[in-house]
Amino acid sequence: MNPLRLPPLLRLLVLTQLAFNIGFFAVLPFLSEHLGGAVGMAGWLVGFVLGLRTFSQQGLFVVGGALADRYGVRPVVLAGCALRIAGFVWLGYAERAWAVTGAVLLVGFAAALFSPAVESEVARQAVAHEEAGGGSRTRVLALFTVAGQAGAFVGPLLGALLLSVDFRAVCLAGAGVFVLVLAAHAVLLPQHLPGRERVEVRSGIGPLLRNRSFLALCCAYGAYLLAYNQFYLALPAEVERAAGSQAPLAWLFALSSLLVVTAQLPVTRWAGERIGTRRSAAAGLGLIAAGFTVVAAALPAGRTGTTGLLPAVGFAVLLTLGQMLVAPAVRAWVPDLAERGRLGLYTGALSSLSGLIVLLGSAATGTLLDTGLPPAVPWLLLAAVPVAAIALLPGRGRPHRRADAADAADAADAADAAEAVDTAVQPDTPRP
């Protein structure tokens, strides 16, 4: 899918994700070292502060999503960008533990505002684009994923370059990126987006908690994220065992990023032409389970060195391919399960509820890896997590539309229909 062929608003939102991640990942990879070194925090306190950042971001996504439904995308995004700028500037000048903690919390809460607002609007606009004959919503969301991954790749390079000056320069550069995002959205993001209705915040929670299909999807997505999180927990331990150090880990992360940037759109196109949403998610989860199984099967041989690293490479590739199928499929599924006018709430709830599952499950996973069981056993048990997630997926997914071009008459009719997309796309009605 060519980004230049997207409607202007979708182009802006995709580029927003790119900029968000450049600004954020210019700072995040170097935060831990700064807290432990320049600020002089103890190791446990560094971990606690980083955990607070995650909680203030992922845990409060549901708040940001609900606010976007109530007040609209533009004010929530602008407020989030302003808070992120303030947080980065404060972090650059903070020298005491309480000040650093406050800055980190502000940085996290800023994302809890703007990320669900942008993600929900991308999903809504992707549905409208699909309804107008512009191509599959899943491919639009895949492009959104690629933009985010590209930003996560460029950001650390920018941060590493500026770190030769000092950490303050890194923070100010990150703030500068968000100044540009704030200015662009103040000028280009419409005050009122056609088809979006403002709703009361409180009245949407009850129906969400009674929406069994959506809650099942949240549980499945949480299990997927728990499995994917082993990229940062189980895989480093396996690389250490095979190579004697974690130096090869950086290459595996780079391989994963390169796969997403180069293969995400072709993989999504293939899935969109052949299978529906549920099958895409199930296939991705199956690939992730296979990745764990590959390592479990190789561990009894106890190989080390280059040969011993091959199972870890296979795990990284299968995990990334699984991610490329699961993440866009789930994001494309949410609009079909959300209540009318509540897409922001549901998008935020997906992140918050699945993040809670990861938080609880990671503690159990860490215990499992330290129990002294035969090396293959933890990996086999971890393989069961994505398998269980397949069973948790709601029973019916939306079939993908083919991205064939419509003729001029069909396109004109579809464009007229797209103006009413908020009602047209709801089956009884899930709404974007």
Poorly predicted spans: 397-432
Q: Mind telling me the C-alpha Rg?
A: 22 Å
The end-to-end span amounts to 21 Å
Q: Please report which band the strand proportion falls in: under 5%, 5-15%, 15-25%, 25-35%, 35-45% or over 45%.
A: under 5%
Short description:
With 432 residues, this protein is an all-alpha fold.
Give a structural overview.
The protein has 432 residues and is an all-alpha fold. It has 18 helices and no strands. It has helices spanning 8-25, 31-36, 43-58, 61-71, 73-93, 97-131, 137-163, 167-188, 205-210, 212-228, 234-243, 249-274, 277-298, 305-337, 343-369, 376-392, 408-418, 421-424. The model is unreliable at 397-432 (pLDDT under 50).
Topology of this structure?
Blueprint lengths: L7 H18 L5 H6 L6 H16 L2 H11 L1 H21 L3 H35 L5 H27 L3 H22 L16 H6 L1 H17 L5 H10 L5 H26 L2 H22 L6 H33 L5 H27 L6 H17 L15 H11 L2 H4 L8
Helix pairs in contact: 1-6, 1-7, 1-8, 3-6, 4-5, 4-6, 4-15, 5-6, 5-8, 6-7, 6-14, 6-15, 7-8, 7-12, 7-14, 10-14, 10-15, 10-16, 11-14, 12-14, 13-14, 13-16
Structural descriptors:
mainly alpha, 432 residues, single chain
